[in-house]
Amino acid sequence: MNLKILRNLSISAILTNATFLSVNAQTFVGVGAGVGIDSGIVYKGTQNKQPSLQPQNVESSSFDYELLVGYQNSSQPVSFRIYGLGGLSYLSTDPKLINATDISANIDVVYSIPMSADKKFSIYGGAGVGLLLLSGKAIKETNSFDDKIKALSQNSNSNHDYKIKSQNFYTSFAINLGTQFYFNQRNAVELAARIPLSRDKSILAYDDKLTKEKFDITLKVPYTMSLRYIFTF
C-alpha cells in the first residue's frame, strides 16, 4: 500500500514538474536591424608618421544586423531571459572601411503587463558581456603599418626607442534596455537599445621616443538602437 502511494506521488510530482516546465520554459529566436549613433574613428598625434588611413577622423552612424537565441521563463509579472546575441555592424558609410562583429551572452529582467489573453507589453533591462572583433580596410592598414615599423626598426642601424600596439579584438560590456510587444503567444516585436560601457577602443598606438612621433587611432563604439522580431517556440 505504501509503495502504491509513493508511486502515485512520484507520478504526480513528475507530471506537475512537466506541466511547470511546459508553461515556464520558452525558447526564442530573433532577428533585428538598426542603427548605431556616434560611431567613428578618431586620430590624435603627430602628422608625419601616420598610416594611410583617410580621412583622419571618420564620424558617422553605423548599420547593425542582429541574431538572438535564448530562453525566457514566463512567470508574471517579472521574468528573466538569457540569450546569446550575435551582431554585425558597419561602422562607416564605406562598408569596407571598418566593421565590428560582436558576440555576447546577455541576461535581462523583464516586467510584463498583460493586455489580453495572448497579448502583453513588456519593458526590460539587463547587461551583456562578450567579444568584439574588428575587420575591414582600416584594420588591415593598421596591421600593415605595425609590421612595417617593426621591420624598419630591425633593419635600421639606429636604435629606435618606440612602443607600438595594434589590436582588433576586445572584451565588450553593454547595458540592455528596451520594450516588447507580444501580439500573440508566439510572435513579438521589440525595440532595443544597447549602451556600451567602454566606448573607446585603441586600434593602433605608436610612440617613438627618438623622433618624438606619437599618435593613437581610436574607434568609438556606437550606441545602438534596433528593431527586432522575436519568435517563441
Which of globular, elongated, flat, extended, rod-shaped describes the shape? elongated
Give the rounded overall mean pLDDT. Answer: 78
Helix/strand order: HEEEEEHEEEEEE
Q: In whole angstroms, how far apart are the ends? A: 42 Å
The helix tally amounts to 2
Class from helix and strand fractions: alpha+beta
Query: What is the helical fraction, as a range of percent?
Result: 10-25%
Proportion in β-strands: over 45%
Rg, rounded, reads 25 Å
User: What ranges have pLDDT less than 50 throughout 5 or more consecutive residues?
Assistant: 13-23, 49-56
Counting DSSP E segments of at least 2 residues, the number of strands comes to 11
Strands in their spatial order, largest beta sheet: 1-2-3-4-5-7-8-11
Sheet with the most strands, sense and barrel status = 8 strands, antiparallel, barrel
Report on this model:
- The chain is elongated.
- Strand 4 (about 100-115) and strand 5 (about 120-135) form a beta hairpin.
- The protein is an alpha+beta fold.
- It has an 8-stranded antiparallel beta barrel with strand order 1-2-3-4-5-7-8-11.
- The protein has 2 helices and 11 strands.
- It has helices at about 1-25, 135-155; strands spanning about 25-45, 60-70, 80-90, 100-115, 120-135, 160-165, 170-180, 185-195, 200-210, 215-220, 225-230.
